[in-house]
Automatic annotation (TrEMBL):
It comes from Mycolicibacterium diernhoferi. It catalyses: L-threonine = 2-oxobutanoate + NH4(+). It comes from the Bacteria. Belongs to the serine/threonine dehydratase family. Pfam families: PALP (PF00291). Its EC number is 4.3.1.19. Gene3D superfamilies: 3.40.50.1100. GO terms for biological process: isoleucine biosynthetic process; L-serine catabolic process; L-threonine catabolic process. Keywords: Lyase, Pyridoxal phosphate. Residues 22-304 form the Tryptophan synthase beta chain-like PALP domain. This is threonine ammonia-lyase. It is an enzyme of class 4 (lyase). Catalyzes the anaerobic formation of alpha-ketobutyrate and ammonia from threonine in a two-step reaction. The first step involved a dehydration of threonine and a production of enamine intermediates (aminocrotonate), which tautomerizes to its imine form (iminobutyrate). Both intermediates are unstable and short-lived. The second step is the nonenzymatic hydrolysis of the enamine/imine intermediates to form 2-ketobutyrate and free ammonia. In the low water environment of the cell, the second step is accelerated by RidA. Its cofactor is pyridoxal 5'-phosphate.
Length: 328
C-alpha cells in the first residue's frame, strides 16, 4: 500500500485565499504572567463564529465540492465543533446539512448545531461513522469528515500560516490532538515556514492513543469507552491513516496531561487571559505548565470555547475554592 499524499504549504496557502473574509484571523494574545524564559502567546480559535477552529476546514472543504454535488447537501459526524462548523458552512452555501452526533455530546453543542438549520441525528457511542454512511446513501449528500481529508487539513493549516506570519521566531507550538487534522495542518505550515520550531501535539492521559502510536511507529487503538473517560470531549477521536502520516512527519512529540491539569488550564485561561476554553482547547496550556518545553517564544492553540456554562462555573469555582493561583 502506498503512503498517503501529504498536504503541502502551498495547499494551505490556497485554502487561506479561499477563506479570506469568511473567517476571523485570530490574534496572538500575549500571556504576561507566563514563564519569562518561555514567553507565551495564546491563539484563541474560540473566537471564531462557531467557537472553534473547525470552521476553517469545513468552509474550505465545502467550497471545493463540485457545485452540482454540493447542491445535494452535506453529511458530517462529530462530537460537536465540526458539527457546528459544517452546519454553519452549509448555511453559508445555502445547502442542507445532516449532522450525526453521539448521544453523550454536550447539549450546548447540539443546540448550536441545530441553530444553523442543520438536521441533527443522535447515535450511540462508536456508531457515528456508520450512521453517517447510511445518510450519505439515503440522501446523495457529500460526506465532510472531521479530519480525514486533505481539504480539511489544509483549512486547519491556515492557523499555522497566521502563527508564522505573526511570530516568525516562534520556538514551540502546542496543539491539541484528537483525529489529528488540526495538528497535521498547523504542523505542515510551521514545519515549512519556521523550520527550527518544535511542534508538540497534546493529548489527555486518558485518550493518549496518538502518543503511544508515534512511539510505536504505527497507530494504537483504544476503545471508545476508554477514550470517553476524559473530560476533553473533543479529543476522543483517533487519527486516520492520512492524519497519522502527517503527524509522523511534522510533530516533534506528543505530550500528555492529566484531567486535573486540564481543569486547571481551563480556569487559568478564564481568570488570567479572560478567555473561555472548553477542556479540549486548554490542553496546550496544561502541557506548557507540566512539561519542560524548549526556551523561547511559545504559542498555545486554544482550539475551542464551547463549554457548558455549568461546567465552566464548576471548574473556575473549584479552582478558587482551593486557592489555586492560576498562572503563578
Amino acid at each position: 500500500m502506498s503512503a498517503p499524499t501529504l498536504v503541502t504549504v502551498d495547499d494551505i496557502r490556497s485554502a487561506a485565499e479561499r477563506l479570506r473574509g469568511s473567517i476571523l484571523r485570530t490574534p496572538l494574545i500575549p500571556a504576561a504572567w507566563a514563564d519569562p524564559a518561555r514567553p507565551l502567546w495564546i491563539k484563541p480559535e474560540s473566537l471564531q463564529v462557531i467557537g472553534a477552529f473547525k470552521v476553517r476546514g469545513a468552509l474550505n472543504a465545502i467550497s471545493r465540492i463540485d457545485p452540482a454535488a454540493r447542491r445535494r447537501g452535506v453529511v458530517a459526524y462529530s462530537s460537536g465543533n465540526h458539527a457546528q462548523a459544517v452546519a454553519y458552512a452549509a448555511a453559508r452555501f445555502g445547502i442542507e446539512a445532516h449532522i450525526v452526533m453521539p448521544e453523550e455530546t454536550p447539549e450546548i453543542k447540539v443546540v448550536r448545531t441545530r441553530s444553523h438549520g442543520a438536521r441533527v441525528v443522535l447515535c450511540e457511542a462508536g456508531q457515528r461513522e456508520a450512521v453517517a454512511a447510511r445518510l450519505v446513501a439515503e440522501t446523495g449528500a457529500t460526506l465532510v469528515p472531521p479530519f480525514d481529508h486533505p481539504d480539511i487539513i489544509a483549512g486547519q493549516g491556515t492557523i499555522g500560516l497566521e502563527i508564522a506570519e505573526d511570530l516568525p521566531d516562534v520556538a514551540t507550538v502546542l496543539v491539541p490532538v484528537s483525529g489529528g487534522g488540526l495538528a497535521s495542518g498547523i504542523g505542515t505550515a510551521i514545519r515549512a515556514l519556521c523550520p527550527h520550531a518544535e511542534i508538540f501535539g497534546v493529548e489527555p492521559e486518558l485518550a493518549a492513543d496518538t502518543a503511544a502510536g508515534l512511539r510505536r511507529g504505527s497507530p494504537v487503538r483504544m476503545s471508545i469507552q476508554e477514550r470517553n473517560r476524559t473530560i476533553a470531549d473533543g479529543l476522543r477521536s483517533e487519527p486516520s491513516e492520512l492524519t497519522f502520516a502527517h503527524l509522523q512527519h511534522v510533530l516533534t512529540d506528543v505530550l500528555t496531561v492529566s484531567e486535573d491539569e486540564i481543569r486547571s488550564a481551563v480556569a487559568e485561561l478564564a481568570v488570567r487571559a479572560r478567555l473561555v476554553s472548553e477542556p479540549s482547547g486548554a490542553v496546550g496550556l496544561a502541557a506548557y505548565r507540566r512539561h519542560a518545553t524548549p526556551a523561547g517564544p511559545t504559542v498555545v492553540v486554544l482550539s475551542g470555547g464551547n463549554i457548558e456554562p455549568a461546567l465552566l462555573a464548576d471548574i473556575v469555582g473549584a479552582s478558587a475554592a482551593v486557592g489555586v493561583d492560576q498562572g503563578h
